[in-house]
Structures are given as structure tokens and as C-alpha cells.
Amino acid sequence: MTDLTIGMPAPEFCLPDADEEMACLEEMHGIYVIVYFYPRDNTSACTLEARTFSDEMEAFAGLNTPVLGVSPDTIPSHRKFAEKHGLTIRLLSDPEHQVIERYGVWVKKKMYGKEYMGVERSTFIIDPDGRIAAIWRKVKVKGHVDEVMARLRELKGDSRQ
To answer: Structural domains in the chain?
Structure first.
């Protein structure tokens, strides 16, 4: 597991999205980027989080900040998930957990007394220099997108609420 901290270089990645287009962090240097990791398409909390980020896409776009959702799901799963829920964020597929592990969010979890490996719901703001500017681990979905937006505005020196 990687212990990423604020100020460290963000691990670079190139992953395919639901439209089979590659999203490469290196190509986004010069702007802020939101990268959030979620466990699985079409589960209640993951759907709420994706829909909430999508609902705020106009505000994120106004701040020139793309939002990238990463999970181990396949490209076809992401495509169906996005279509079913009208999602406007880019969903990136990492079925081999390469990026998920580099960000330290592939962790041991426990449910009903059973241990298993899975994605820890986490969000990172990457700054224009490719460094980690903010981190949320073990995210609770309710109110999270508002927290991310507030922190992004603070980082960008934007006083709008």
C-alpha cells in the first residue's frame, strides 16, 4: 500500500474511459484534477456519489477541473452505468487495480465477518503541477462533493460558495 500525502507527486496513469478513450493524468498537468476511487458500478453509495459529481459538473467545468471516477469495473460496465444514470463524469476502468494500488486504495475490508480486498472510497485533488493537493480517505458520500468543491475553490482562491 502506498501512503500518499499532500504535496507528493500524484502517481501518473493512463486508463480507458467508458468511451474507450484514454485519460492520462500527465496530459492534464496545468489544471486541477479530481480523481475519486469507488468500489463498484451500480451500487447505492457509488451511484449516489457518481450522480452527485455529475450534478455538479457545470460548476467543476467552470473551474476548469475535470472529474475522473476510477473503479475496477470494465469499460462495458462503466458505459451501462453512465447511460443508466445519465452520468457526465469520466469513468475510468482499472480491472487489474494498477492505479488503484498505486494510490493506496486497494485495501483489506471486512463485511459480515469476512475479510476481502476492495477499493476504499477515496478522493484526491491533483494540482496543476501534478502534486496531491487534498486527500479524503474512507469517504462518506453524503456532503462529500460539496466538501471537494469547497476545497477546490479554496485552493484556486475562488471565494464563491
So the answer is: 14-18+29-156 (3.40.30.10)
